[in-house]
Amino acid sequence: MKKITLLILFFVASLIGYSQELVTNGDFESATTGAWFGNAFNIVTQGSNNLNQANVTSAGAPFDVNLSQVIDLQDGLTYELNFDAFTDTNTGTRTIIAGLGQNGGDFTSLTEQPTLTSTPQTFTFQFTVNYGDNVDDRVLFDMGAETGFVFIDDVSVIEVTTTCNNGVQDGDETGVDCGGSICPPCVNPPSGPPTTPPARDPSSVLSVYSDAYTQAPTDGFQTFGGAVVTEIDLSGNGIQQVTTPVTGSGLQYQYFGVTPQFLDLSAMTNMHIDFYFEGNPSAPGTILIVIAQYSDGTNIQENFDVTALAPNTWHENDIPFADFDANSGNPRDEIQQVIVQVAGADGSITGPFYIDNLYFHDNTTIGTEDFTSNNFSTYPNPTSDSWTITSQNENIKTVEIFNTLGRLVKSFAVNDQYTQINASDLSSGIYFAKVSGGNNQVKTLKLIKK
């Protein structure tokens, strides 16, 4: 059929090359193919030509009427979407949403909203995938926001080869396929980890992510807003590399499940986080830490305006809760989420950012004398019923037993060089005994309940 062409291009034509077709049955000539799906999938014949027809009779959300196909896209590459589309003469004009996106997760997408008329047009859009490779991709058409017919034909998605993805340092790039005026910033990860955190009593620190301390049990972390998180190794120390394509994207550590097991920060006074970011973000570029309380749904949060900080260096931050936002005095005994995200009108931090040593503590450290001035010991360990704790030099004053979430589960005075702890009422797992002796000497013992 004769068609009018509407071209919308985002790259200089002289820099573009093309590769293989990614869409199956884009011309809808194979009526039985299972590649297309969605409630708008409906192949019809007009003359000798097959195409897809959808009739929206009631307007609602755009995705209420949709047509999609799973295709294989790669993060960081640019793709060209071509398709023919029109409406009927009674409808006259209407819009649709067309683009590429995720076929799962939070369904992040890159879209345009072309206006259809009763005259067939060819639409051409280019998109650079920036939401990661953690779920399948798709080509999508959402049509439910307006009523009227939508006819779609000759759908094509092809990778576009530019100076930014050809494997060669060309154009004004500062690295291979990165830097310069049009390519994404070159990744410049830290050359080494941040400073090793100080020795702390295990009962006085709750670690979210750090190699220095035992991590509090968690339901794991989730990404949102298309963020991509990759753990990389620096000199034997793991750090998290976080790529955030849009405002509000990031990751969250979760402390709830079928049986809620919240993080109790009521005894903690400080939060610590080390972060490193690349590039020079335009204002406002903010890393935001949100701590979500379960019992009343309130949050406390701390913002780091990275536009005021030097890029490409570790920033090691230890912040008292009193310095958080106006909600700093809110309860924090049932923390269900610890969230790290970017905020700001410009969309994201330029380049990835990196985090390490995200933990909470009560602002005390352990000196060497705490371990050497007395000789506390425990046996049997592991145990199924009880532990015995002994002291060689002086009386034990108190014993406090904490679980790995930092909750105090037992506490009692001793005033003897020997004490026995009943473990039969405790669940299997790891515990910490904070043993206090004379002259305020303290030692923490790791206990294992079988």
UniProtKB/TrEMBL annotation:
Pfam family, one: CBM_4_9
InterPro entries listed in its UniProt record: CenC_carb-bd (IPR003305), Galactose-bd-like_sf (IPR008979), Secre_tail (IPR026444)
Keywords: Hydrolase, Signal
UniProt GO molecular function: hydrolase activity, acting on glycosyl bonds
Gene3D superfamilies xref list: Galactose-binding domain-like
Ranges of residues in domain Secretion system C-terminal sorting: 379-445
Position of the signal peptide: 1-19
Domain CBM-cenC stretches: 21-134
Protein name: T9SS type A sorting domain-containing protein
